[in-house]
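BUG-528 | component: ligand-complex export | severity: low

The export step for magnesium ion jobs runs without errors, but we want the raw record kept on the ticket for reference. Input record follows.
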Amino acid sequence: QKQGGKKIHKANFDIDLPGAKDGEVVTRFPPEPSGYLHIGHAKAAILNDTIAKAYHGKLIIRFDDTNPSKESQEFEDAILDDCKTLGIVGDRITHSSDYFDEMYNYAITMIKEGKAYCDDTPLEKMRAERMDGLKSARRDRSVEDNLHIFTEEMKNGTEEGLKNCLRAKIDYTNKNKALRDPTIYRCNLKPHQRTGDKWKIYPIYDFCVPIVDSLEGVTHALRTIEYSDRNSQYEWMLEALHLRKVYVWDFARVNFVRTLLSKRKLQWFVDKKLVPGWDDPRFPTVRGIMRRGMTVEGLRNFILGQGPSRNIINLDWNIIWAANRKVIDPIATRLIALDSENIVPVTLKDGPELHTEQKPKHKKNPKLGSKDIYFSSNLLLEQEDAVALKEGEEITFMDWGDCIIEKIDKDDKGVVKAISAQLFLNGDYKKTEKKLTWLAAEKTVPVVLKDFDHLITKDKLEEGDNFEDFLTPQTEFTAKAIADTNVENLKVGDIIQFERKGFFRLDSDKDGQKIFFSVPDGRNKSRI
Ligand code: ATP
Ligand code: MG
Ligand code: MG
């Protein structure tokens, strides 16, 4: 029997945190404010939030702001917004920089106890020594020397200080390279977005995280599995500083085919103007996928549905879009759009006058209410449908009824120019082979449909691959269409289905131009 196991709603696994007590669990989501949240961060945020709630505990959103060279307030604001979008507000919002004083003092304690030393070995050499398990020439510096260099030279960012870093004195020969005297403090003269020019030295992630976790009362630190080599280092820091133990719980990182999940690489696309911004629908950011038509529920279901596997796999986007489809399919209003460059007019003999009738927005979900559909004797079909028709054939107009095709006019290339037909509402639509989408010719609204491709061509970039060598030449596709008048009632952000085309999200509606983005549905075909 598991201790403290919790069944998480909609998840296909139990969360079983070691040492977890109901009401006392504290988790944290620690983004670095160096970019917008991407889907990997969303997984971390959702897991931390879900686990905290399952144990009636607390979630801390902590900005891990220890590197002023990469971070900014703009990113911090965007991350908080994105968390809110995901329904995550946190019980506290904190910053690693709130603890710069404490961390500085802990570093001094470590030096005094002979557990840290200043090292001015050139970077390349230090790296090589670490790889080979060699002792640094500076490892045996005296406590006095180390204190002087750290608190006078490094702290003030002097020329001598800049040459040095502070390293934890753990074990330079350890099989686990993470324990080979990791760097814990480094100089940086760039002013910090919150602490200004107060500090010229900044703690390194591996030193900062265990200390702040412990000080903030975090009981369970969730980390992606590739950090597991660093778990013993995390424990070492807590023990060396006589700090409270924190349980580390590993979870699988998510990666997706043909997708870059690195803020630095995404920033490159923004800087090169290959995308207009971080919310681009081709970006794996929370903003990007939401613009593409992802729902918060779909995203949560996908993440919690992943199960307890700790294998890092390269996921296909179809999996997550299929999870999203389950959410949007039952509630997306059904509308009609036709490719406006390939339209065929149909004249109905003895057809109706132009008028509207109410039809359900969704045949299988009457709760969604109704929409007005224009009926007329002048209809429009898509060329692709028209060209497949035969004279004398009985077909069905969707949401209306059957008709008999009487005459088809084609030009010498076989392109259909016009059709005349006779309504046959007593026909049996269950027996017809073709159910066609149509519009009343007098009442259509022009729209723009867009579809997108992944930014890179290779499924999985390997070590040594340069992503710049694998850029997809064309990633945005635009088509013009005409839609039924119900598109006039949509708001930006609404997700609908254009019958027989797929799901679309209204992305913008400016100067009378409605632009819809196609929402992938996990079936992997373009719909425009
Ligand atoms: P990036 O390389 O994009 O900057 P990062 O890991 O350095 O990513 P952080 O802001 O430090 O970004 O990460 C915040 C949290 O999100 C961390 O807990 C991290 O483990 C988690 N995280 C980042 N990427 C992924 C991913 N692909 N899958 C799952 N969790 C992730
Ligand atoms: Mg990071
Ligand atoms: Mg990273």
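Assignee comment: Attached the raw record above. The two ends are 53 Å apart (CA to CA).
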